[in-house]
Amino acid sequence: MSTLEFDHVTVRYGASTVLDEVSLIVPDGEIVGLVGESGSGKSTLAKAAVGLAPVHGGQILLDGEPIRLRGRHRPVQMVFQDPFSSLDPRMTIGESIAEALYRPESGRLSRAGRRVEIARLLELVHLDAGRAGHRPGELSGGQRQRVALARALAGRPRLVIADEITSALDVSVQGAVLNLVREMQRELGLSMLFISHNLAVVRYVASQVAVLEGGRIVEHGPTAEVLGRPQHDYTRQLLAAIPGGHDTLTKETNA
Amino acid sequence: MATLIPAAAPPRSVPKPQGRLGGRWTRFALRRTGRLLVSLWVLVTVSFLMIHLVPGDPVRAALGMTAPTELVEAKRQALGLDDPLLTQYVHYLGNLLHGDLGESITTQLPVSETISQRLPATASLAVLAFLVAIAVAIPLGVAVAVATRRGRRRRTELAFAGSSVVLGAIPDFLVGVALVAVFAVGLGWFPVAGRTDASSYVLPVLALAIGPAAVLARIVRVEMLSVLETDYVRTARAKRLPARRIHLRHALPNAVTATLTLGGMLLASMIAGTVLVENVFAWPGLGSTIVQSIVTKDYPVVQGTVLVYGLGVLVINTLVDVALAVLDPRSTIGEL
Amino acid sequence: MSQRWFRIVKTPVGIVGLGLLALIVLLAVFAPILWGDKASTVDTENILAGPSAQHWFGTDNLGRDLFFRVLVATRLSLTLTLVATALGTVIGLVLGTAPQLLGGRLGRLVTALVNVFVAFPGLLLVLVFAVIFGVGARGAVLAIGLAVAPGLARLCQTLVAGVAGLEYVAAARIAGVNRFRIMARHVLPNVAEPLIVNVTITAGAILLSFAGLSFLGLGVQAPEYDWGRLMQDGLSGIFVHPLAALAPGIMVVLAGLAFNLTGEAIAGVFGISTTTGTGTMQVPSGETPVTELRHDHEADGDLVLDVRDLSVTFPGVNGPVRPVRGVSFAIAVGEAVGVVGESGSGKSLTALAIAGLVEEPASVDARHLTFCGTDLLEEPANGQTHDKLLGTSLAVVFQDPMTSFNPTMRIGAQLAEVGRHHQGLDRKEASERAVDRLRAVRVRDPERRARQYPFEFSGGMRQRAMIGMGLMGSPRLIIADEPTTALDVTVQSQVLALLQDVRREEGAALLLISHDVSVVADVCDRVLVMYAGRIVEDLPTADLRTRARHPYTRALVAAVPAMTTDVDAPLATIPGHPVEPAQVPVGCAYAARCPLATQRCLEQDPTLTAGPGGSRVACWHATEPAEVLTAQEAIA
Ligand SMILES: Nc1ncnc2c1ncn2[C@@H]1O[C@H](COP(=O)(O)OP(=O)(O)OP(=O)(O)O)[C@@H](O)[C@H]1O
Ligand code: SF4
Ligand SMILES: [Mg+2]
Fold this sequence. Notes:
The complex is a heterotrimer. Chain B is an all-alpha fold. Chain B contains twelve helices and no strands. The longest helix of chain B has 39 residues, at 243-281. Chain B is flat and about 80 Å long. In chain C, strands 7-8-9-3-10-11-13-12 form an eight-stranded mixed beta sheet, with helices on both faces. Chain C is built from 21 helices and 13 strands. Among the domains of chain C are: 27-271, MetI-like (MetI-like fold, Orthogonal Bundle); 545-636, no CATH class. Chain C has helices at 2-8, 12-40, 66-102, 104-118, 122-133, 137-164, 167-174, 179-216, 227-235, 243-269, 347-354, 387-393, 411-422, 427-440, 446-450, 459-470, 489-506, 517-523, 551-559, 599-603, 625-635, and strands spanning 303-314, 321-332, 336-340, 363-365, 368-371, 374-375, 394-397, 477-481, 509-513, 526-531, 534-540, 609-610, 616-617. The chains are: A alpha/beta, B mainly alpha, C alpha/beta. Chains in contact: A-B, A-C, B-C. The interface between B and C is large, with 93 and 93 residues. Bound molecules: adenosine-5'-triphosphate, iron/sulfur cluster and magnesium ion.
């Protein structure tokens, strides 16, 4: 696994600047949580790292080298939010994973080798290897997200970006996916950029937290510190808004 | 189906509230005018290029193989076909701006004159048919939608669906032939052909309107049905408004907006439909002119009539977009 | 997939469409072989004859038999149609996929070009191309093929863009799959069905176009003939015998219908067009276990809402399905009650049923349903409805503020409606009240905002306006179904605070539905936990995290990380899946996922019984706290 570094990254869509000189480091083997409101640019940052958003300024480095965004074997993989559109409904989940499989430089993977590898990946995310022949329609939301994670791992990425992977899931399955994420990090030493709007979820999986507001990182540090002793106003607002934890609800006049 | 609804929908990005109303409309007008100009340019260019894309010598083709070479040469000269293409293009555009569409190869009459003579017959036919189609389709579509919602009155639904599919599938010229056979030849109620008094309009207008009306009514029904299932109609129900108000004030405008785009295309195709219907009824309009001139290879006339038809279509499309913008203010901000 | 294709043959539309199509193909293949000679035999004795026993449809100007000519013409008509369809489809596909494959500026240029051409009706393009390619069958094929291409290209572009925006395509790109393979493997297969439908229907239109062109004399030229050509020939004699013109016309219509109906049938089977559910069914009376109500002994006057044995039933393929099965609860004046549970547990349906918003084909049953002392199950005697009562005293706030307002109506007008219809206000008074209510829900600059359209409001603002709409009357109960799920956390807390304030100011009760236990815990006095269409526990929110007695409630609470969750322990998870409403087991619905389940649980459905302190629980082993604790560990 590797270190991902956003170095003064700027992304514009037309006239609007979505990311404004964002600098952020995801250290080797750690999970960095990225929080912020919708529209703050979380997903854009993720897309920039995998080449799906136009970067206008700054650079994105992986272990100090500019990240490779073309061709096969892309070193950064991503898991998406919506479990219902993240898998091709016409492909079996085995085929979906096979498509992303890492191919050694020397020739192709044998049929049997591929099958073994798919089974290994499915078991890694706690799915029965026999599921490889199933289509996404036969799986629940939580199972699909696990398949999506397996597919992301199939390409032997050096880093994985998870964009709101639990927010479309029912509470009863969210826990299982979060447990899996932590397990991956512990056992595989996976580095991960974990994006969520849910502070409690981020607190649970991430060792560091970055807070994004209006396309700028306003606060970044170890999770306990940022959430325990927030320095920035905006972080405090976010914390105050969490239901259940605090009884003083802010009363603003304009939503 | 509930499993398809995500338990915790992630926060959605909210479009920033727009600033001044005027700004939005100005941008809409600019964008729409820009598109109109581009379409216009394409239309003019296509009509110009048409004659050059004809394989071989268009003049020779028009005058026939037996025509003397000198005559062909003279005609080529007169049409300016020997000049460089760009010069011809500039010339063509210049003439257009002066309303000069050239003159017919066969009759030597100015094309603009022919068109202005024949346009009213075609335009009145198209406009009348347009109005008839709308006047029938919208109330019918709405009524059937409300009556057959959520699996009620299966038989009505089936009868409507069946007859509208069949009526929509019969081409207008065939409807014309059938109408003539029954009402003109058989019953003798209306004239067989030609444009004389008001009664001569009945059959051509019907021939032109029936198909589009059937298709439009179907579209209105489908749109109305889907609008009746929306959240905001549920909101209106939660307000306990009378059914009439829910259907006419909340559902209809939204159903019509969705219908307009498709309906606009349908109506544009109605303009083209006049070509066929006019030929059935020997209607003295542009439709007969264009067909004749294609057969006789009278290219200047073809160019002129194609331009006029195209223009009619563009005008309709623009009107539809403006209507859409008035009915549904959202459409002024989207990409058009 | 193949099964679905097979289903086409089972629909009436499909049978007719495919049957006609088969007939036409057979004619196209065999008619020229069988009757080619008869169709071209010149009979100078019988020129332009009417129908007779010898010549069923009469003869043409050379005395040739029209009946056979119509049949033989099938081959040419169909061939031309298919060739032009193929041409148009290929060009359409190329232009339609080009924007995705080329990307960037070139792609946008293709899109723009297609957009310009698509604005012109097909027939006009056909005429232009007919000029270029010349009069005749070959020219007509090229002209029509090219003329339908922009329409198909546009359709293809829209479909492709729709799929290309999906996450699995993005995932494939990130995985390094090249764009051609993505197009072939991921995109095209997923747009195939709507494309096939449209190509089929386009083929029908093309057939008609050929008939039209030939009819105008621009298509097929003598001595060849297709249906259009025959019609044109027949038109001149329409006074003498109309059948000569109508017979080929009828064939054109039949062939056109064959394509159209087949297209419709495919669309129907693949759910591309809209057809609504099945007819209503009789609902068998429910045998839900009788539940005890906490408030059975309380005075009725204190209750805003009293529901007993509420059930909602849908007709299903294998008999009725009941997603809400006997729900009983009451809400006291000013009380805030929360409802939690997994997706599909019946929370929304319960709320909709109470508000009287469940529509056909679903049906609502209840033993008792009173709102503000009025029995909603009975129509008022004087021929009136409950509309006025419900319109002014019951406010409903839905989950998605983006779609819950009418997009074509100003916000102010949407609020004012209530005043106009239920409070007898005139236009001016009603809009003043609307502005006042917007101010009451703390919308800034309410006069200006009232004149705006919903799309000019942010999500949070809309939810405020929605609450304001409920305040047009004087609500006794506000039903809010996931009112903040679609909102950002900061906005969520503002909207929840607003709901609290409104409740305090108006003295209204609140029924708040949420999948988020913490939201409910924040706002409500009492919480109802639903599972598989039942209330399984009813307890004060204060007890939720510590003293819940139902294993499901405990698991639900433990599964959600809170700001105080121990980050070193794994989160609790609930094994298995929620119960589908169509497959509710005999015993306790939760038994398959419950660590405490015993034989009794599998056999007998536990009733919701009141315990000490007024809370209710439906579980055979709820009273065994020690066991519950071990179960808690078992879950973890
Ligand atoms: N129109 C319908 N036809 C058949 N079944 C339906 C229909 N609408 C809802 N259901 C079923 O009713 C059950 C309960 O649905 P409901 O919307 O009340 O769930 P919910 O608890 O609100 O879930 P969520 O948290 O996803 O909003 C679901 O299992 C669903 O399948
Ligand atoms: S009744 Fe039995 S199965 Fe149902 S929740 Fe209680 S212990 Fe579990
Ligand atoms: Mg719901």
